[in-house]
Design a protein that fits this description.
Elements: H1 16-24, H2 33-39, H3 44-57, H4 73-76, H5 80-86, E1 90-94, E2 100-104, H6 109-121
Antiparallel strand pairs: 1-2
Helix pairs in contact: 1-3
Length: 122
């Protein structure tokens, strides 16, 4: 029996530092996981698996994407009447990690993106 192999083998080997660089590139300049995966010719699931693997190895901390944003407590403390009037302006977002974020419709999108990443990484 004779077997011929047509085409190239697609399996590649990635070093931990290469995996870390790819995982950390998500979010740079607003890059999504899908965009980063496409750029490196890998699947989104591979990036998620690498993220988990790197955390287990201690190469990626769970809080590496954590971002502390100052909060104006006076603006947060609204009376109940204001809260009811503004409830129509609130947006509720359910994240893939099972958590829910609620925010005003006028929130800065860059800050919101960073908050979502921090919450999903936690």
């Amino acid at each position: 029996m004779r077997v011929e192999i047509l085409g190239q083998e697609r399996r590649r080997r990635w070093r931990d530092d290469e995996k870390l660089a790819i995982v950390m590139s998500v979010g740079d300049g607003g890059a999504t996981i899908t965009e980063v995966a496409h750029q490196h010719d890998i699947t989104r699931q591979q990036i998620y698996a690498w993220r988990s693997e790197l955390k287990k190895k201690g190469l990626l901390s769970a809080s590496s994407d954590a971002l502390f944003i100052p909060v104006d407590m006076e603006a947060v403390q609204m009376d109940v009447a204001d809260d009811r009037e503004r409830s129509s302006e609130l947006v509720e977002l359910r994240l893939s990690c099972g958590r829910t974020l609620r925010f005003g419709s006028a929130v800065d999108t860059a800050a919101l993106t960073q908050i979502i990443r921090a919450v999903e990484a936690a």
